[in-house]
Every structure is written in C-alpha cells, then in structure tokens.
Specification:
The chain has a single domain, classed as Rossmann fold. The protein is globular and about 55 Å long. Helix 3 (150-163) links the parallel strand 6 (140-148) and strand 7 (167-176). The longest helix has 14 residues, at 150-163. By secondary structure, it is α/β, with parallel strands linked by helices. Helix 3 packs parallel to helix 4. The chain starts with a strand and ends with a strand. It contains four helices and eight strands. The protein binds pyrazine-2-carboxylic acid and zinc ion. Pyrazine-2-carboxylic acid binds next to helix 3.
Amino acid sequence: MAEDALIVIDMQNDFCPGGALAVEGGDEIVPVVNRLIERARHVILTQDWHPPGHSSFASSHPGKAPFETISMPYGEQTLWPEHCVQGSAGADFHPGLRWTSAELVVRKGFRAEIDSYSAFFENDHKTPTGLAGYLRERGITKLQLCGLATDFCVAFSALDAVAQGFSTSVVLDACRGIDLNGSLAAMIERMRQAGVQVG
Ligand code: VGL
Ligand code: ZN
C-alpha cells in the first residue's frame, strides 16, 4: 500500500533565533510544523549533526569567514558558523517541537570531510544517507517536506526526493530560508522546475 510521510528538516536550536546559524523567523514555524506533524501518517525528522572542527565550519579554514565559499573535492561549499555540533544544546530540536511521534531521525553531516544538506545524499550527491532505501522498504511514495532552511537543507532534500522518484511537496508556510545572494528565490524556482510541488 502506498503511504505518505512528513519529513521535518533540521528544526534545531542553532537554526532558530539565538542559535549559531539563526534563520530569521525560524521559531515562528514551530506551531505550523506541529500541526503538520499531528496530521501526518508517518513522521521523519532530520538532524544536522556535525563533529567539532567540521569542514563546513569557516573556523576550520584559516582566513575564511562564514558565508564565504570554498572549493572542496566534491564541489563548491558555503562556509558556516560552527553549528549543530554533536551533543550540543544547539543541535537539540527546538523545545516547542512536538517530535515524539517521529518514527525515524536521520542524522546528517557527521563526516568531518563532507557536508550534507540533503536528507538523501551528502553534498557529493553520491553518498547516500540510507533514507531512500528506508522509505522504499516501507512503501512510502509520497513526501511532504518542511523545516529549515528552505533554500539549503529543505531544497536539497526536495530535489533529491523527486530525483529518487518520490512524489514531493514543500509547505512554504512551514519553512524559513537563509537567502544568501538570492538563494531563496533561486532554489524555489529550481524545485518547481524539477517537479516539486511548492506551496
Ligand atoms: C543547513 C547550512 C548548514 C540547513 C545546515 O539546515 O539548511 N544550512 N547546515
Ligand atoms: Zn550544517
């Protein structure tokens, strides 16, 4: 039987106001996400989960500042403030998030040498997280995505989801973006072009 699932992306303290990589209004979506969770048949969460000294941190690259880009063996990488360090309070889910019904938590970005925006693949677009296989084994074919940040982890996850053959929608009211150099509008357009239902 075809099943559907809600995937809540990175609803963590560090992406909310007061956090290390705060997304404007990130906390405002908590009640909206909670409503989606209440209505969902199956709930899956992602959790950005970096070891100290992760290669996506500007502090790991002498002379580099957050939000600059560098060239990595797998391609261009934006550098970020240190965030979502494994086991830190910043990596915890927002205290208002009603996550207890979640059936799976996908941790990503745990390899020091590579970042992972998408819930499906690391930023080399090759190394899988295992999520696609998990969903297929469970007969889940339809996905609804929400969370933080619209133009990074939500968008990369949605693009990979459609490419993997899942029917995919993104609930914009339950997302907030970072918007680096116009990335928000650009990624929304890319998602629409790829066949993600963005509403
Ligand atoms: C994210 C930047 C770095 C996200 C994660 O969740 O969108 N963005 N790590
Ligand atoms: Zn990260």
